[in-house]
Amino acid sequence: MHPTGKTPPVENALNGSKELTFEEVKNELYNRHHPSLTSLDIEVHAKTVHKIRTLKRKHNVVMLGHNYMEPLVFGLSDKDEQGDSLGLSMFAAKTEAQYLIFNGVPFMAETAKILSPNKTVLVADKTAGCSLADNFGAEDVRKLKELYPGAPVMIYVNSYADAKAESDICCTSANAAHIAKSMPGDTLIFVPDIFFAQNLEEELKEEKNVVYPGKDNTARGAVCEVHEKFTLSDLLAIRESFEIPKGHPKRKLYAHWECRPNVLKEADFYGSTSQIMKDIAARVEDNHLERAFVASECELTSNLAQEFPKVQFWTACSVRCSHMAKVRLDKIVNILEAIDSGEDLAEYEVTLDPAVIDKARLPIERMLEASV
Ligand code: 13P
Ligand code: SF4
What we know:
Rossmann fold; four-stranded parallel β-sheet; globular; binds 1,3-dihydroxyacetonephosphate
């Protein structure tokens, strides 16, 4: 609640084209009526949000925001700058801006750099990792290619550029099934996510032989350390205690592709972060959603709770990606201040060997062509 008791209407701060005063920014934050954004949060952070907004506009910075960003960080991005890995890659491919701040983890920013090598791509924290990307590399792809000669390699976007450079095509959770079906031959190697691969194997069982690390081989693969936390018994307990029975027309349980196969099977809907958001939006539009639980990173649910205030959401704050959590307002403002004062940006800039960029671009561009 605004301290004056009033919440004067202002243009949403998500529309970055308009300059807002400090008071207007603060009012906009209060106007969000976000369930987990307290007056204290707003009073403490409004000055930084205003500064970021002003410098972003002054230097024509594109600020991409992944759906897992905490609400105050997520709201720094204009609506069309927010999204899942696929949407953000597509945006990065077409933007004209010289500076691109990627509020997400570095493998995502690498994709933007590969698609726009002449742009300055910046991240709040270069040490932020990802359990999938960190535990799999180019050598692991080469080993699998030796094991299954001639089979194309489809690599999940949650990987670093060197591993992508060894692969035939890239995919995200929004297009994996579609891209897999478009690949030639009966067999497809999918890396590095083992649960995702098993989910894909189940979905495509009539059409493709999906092979992956650990399936009748000793190759190294990885799982998402956040999504693996959800077990089938957790989901069944949530169904019972939050009263979301299977088949209920207005209560739904959602899961991300990176969850365990038995969790995905139990869910009423599974998809990428944006696909989950779109399904919720469509049901809200038709007045068909009163309650939901999303088995994914908890800030996705925070952002959903803001967008769809009439839906009752449950969330588990312990299911937070510690890597995504490294992207914070205080670090983002430092990047913008460095741009403003002409300081060296090396601490934030994502750089890649031009030879790796050249090789890694092909699988990403193939994915983008196959996605339209
Ligand atoms: P999306 O592609 O669905 O945004 O997911 C990215 C991710 O890292 C999920 O954990
Ligand atoms: Fe990686 Fe999982 Fe974090 Fe996504 S949620 S960035 S897959 S560790």
